[in-house]
Amino acid sequence: MALINEHFLKLPGNYLFADIAKKVNAYKVSHPKQKVISLGIGDVTQPLCPAVIEAMHKATDEMAKKASFRGYGPERGYDFLREAIIKNDFLPRGIHLDMNEIFVNDGAKSDTGNFQEILRWDNNIGVTDPVYPVYIDSNVMIGRAGVFENGAWSNVTYIPCTADNNFIPQIPDHRVDMIYLCYPNNPTGTVLTKEELRKWVNYAIHNDSIILYDAAYQAYIRDESIPHSIYEIRGARKVAVEFHSYSKTAGFTGIRCGYTIVPKELTASALDGTARASLNQIWDRRQCTKFNGTSYISQRAAEAIYTPEGRKQVKEVIDYYMENADIMRDSLTRLGYKVFGGINAPYLWVKTPDGIDSWKFFEQLLYGASVVCTPGVGFGPSGEGYIRFTAFGDREDCREAMKRIAEWTLK
Amino acid sequence: MALINEHFLKLPGNYLFADIAKKVNAYKVSHPKQKVISLGIGDVTQPLCPAVIEAMHKATDEMAKKASFRGYGPERGYDFLREAIIKNDFLPRGIHLDMNEIFVNDGAKSDTGNFQEILRWDNNIGVTDPVYPVYIDSNVMIGRAGVFENGAWSNVTYIPCTADNNFIPQIPDHRVDMIYLCYPNNPTGTVLTKEELRKWVNYAIHNDSIILYDAAYQAYIRDESIPHSIYEIRGARKVAVEFHSYSKTAGFTGIRCGYTIVPKELTASALDGTARASLNQIWDRRQCTKFNGTSYISQRAAEAIYTPEGRKQVKEVIDYYMENADIMRDSLTRLGYKVFGGINAPYLWVKTPDGIDSWKFFEQLLYGASVVCTPGVGFGPSGEGYIRFTAFGDREDCREAMKRIAEWTLK
């Protein structure tokens, strides 16, 4: 008799974004003439840049001819892309990576979800709170999170990030084996200075912990003192794996490409105390068994981002989104809202007025201004009393949403 | 202290194809002027067909304009592709599937590797032997395979498929919870009749087992009495998940697209005896957490296979490969080799002469004829004494290889 993995049954049935969609639909049915503006889901809206489009056409044409046709690619990704990553994303910051420390993937969600499986199921985990749900849910599935009680998982250390601590997570007073950090942060849009990040690296070295560092939004950093990579911190290569994505960097949410850095110095113990194992080798074994590389077209598309034209074009789109963020920040701040993030990240984290709870404010905004946000509590207990806005919309929608919120707020 | 998942450390260090590459390189170094022909690795060589290329260009152009740009797609895949799958791959065989029973993926390797994780780690498994290594290795990683002793895993039931039983796997005399079947078979190229497949479905129903059915090579079936899908067997929807791939169907090894069928009737028990869980729902939850859909370009490419032109063009390439198979079968049979498979599959499974072991014959063929095959023992204990040839090469290489083997054999 085949038995189900019972840990999957522990997961709450509903998804945050499905719940939102349901409520938005109910509103639309009762207000069929009203245009709803969504500043909710974190998906991009601007088309791919010309350099990327050109590279994709070229790669497609290569696949049409026998001489240039490509079948299975290397599981770690093509050399042309890994070389471009080293040269452009790391060398300029003084980080020297070997080709074999880079694993090209089909997007950061896969690897942030899958990487935990090469570690024992009974390590304990720590997350900043609020948090991107994939970190926790993927750990629930393997039985690592424990049981869900009173809105929290029993084996997860939640590290609150709220206005009270200026969104700086406090180092735990106990040992945490696996720590998820995401900076610039989704959902709060806040960042960590080098000094703060260094504390985490030192904590991990001291405790023999592993940091799973999600740098998916690093392209949005405008203050150049903020680290783009955890490997800017000395010693991080021994304790951290780092996830990158082209989804938000270059609008690749529909193209599917990203990469993960697993340094050769990164090791972990086996329970029986045998020699330490290389996570690079083990992750490679995992990928060679359960993954067959990313589309050649997508890898050529990613390579094009690093050309001079590609860099310029990608920056223009990022600047466009960040101008949205500026417009929203200014407008909401002028209206008296407390706004966080949105300076080095495409997310704005807004305190609900008068201590209203997240879902209630979500509904007020929907029915009062026909604007959709994401209730902060959907990202974890410390998200209660906040909502998230994304800067990925069209300029016109963004201005119109701010106008409506102003009218509604001042009414 | 973060601990490694110790099951990964149990995996043998070397890969079959890495070992082969090493030996081939050693030969090339000592014979620099000799052209080596590979009939070893199962990768396609012919370019993508025009209908697919056109669809990829069109999809790329859509991504260049704001009005037609697509960001995150549905995790289960776009409706246009799932509708084409239902209409073309299943309805003509009398199989009625619901849209939500289809999960588009980035290739069958991912899902054949990942699906096992939604089942308990202590289910036991059965595989036909020889076997595609991903089935076993992915189960080793979660701790399900036990320990490796004398060339076999302790918790795996190996079901021999050799010339002695005409490559028909015998139903086990004990209960196996999870059964992997791949037909047309990789590596032997043999097929199972409806009557034989029905025995497995009935066995699974009787034992409450789950069949993981890999149909990656179904497009190569020429004898229309052979089942293309396990769902042609009554009752299979209750006990089987089925994996499909465009890799071999349409040369998508570099494009990455396939799909998995998880019927709504497919359920499994929880250990505590609570109500049975729907594998469709649980797989959906897994995919929504650890996967973000397949490239839009790849999905449009797959859709194009189902157009009248696409169908015709794809069939031409399959016919080309199968003509290779015919040429190889005829030639090797005339030389006195015992050849299996190659009629409804792009693989030929050849008995080594005089009981020579697989690796020894591999080396004789390499040094005698400069032709690369795959040693059968690399696919499992029952592969000893066989080698595999693939039909995915160029016609010219295929003829030249047969000529060389003839000269060497008759010397």
Automatic annotation (TrEMBL), chains A, B:
Pyridoxal 5'-phosphate binds at residues 72, 108-109, 132, 186, 217, 245-247, 256, 292. It comes from the Bacteria. This is LL-diaminopimelate aminotransferase. Its EC number is 2.6.1.83. Pathway: Amino-acid biosynthesis; L-lysine biosynthesis via DAP pathway; LL-2,6-diaminopimelate from (S)-tetrahydrodipicolinate (aminotransferase route): step 1/1. The modification N6-(pyridoxal phosphate)lysine is found at residue 248. Substrate binds at residues 15, 42, 109, 132, 186, 292, 388. Belongs to the class-I pyridoxal-phosphate-dependent aminotransferase family. LL-diaminopimelate aminotransferase subfamily. It catalyses: (2S,6S)-2,6-diaminopimelate + 2-oxoglutarate = (S)-2,3,4,5-tetrahydrodipicolinate + L-glutamate + H2O + H(+). GO terms for molecular function: transaminase activity. It comes from Prevotella herbatica.
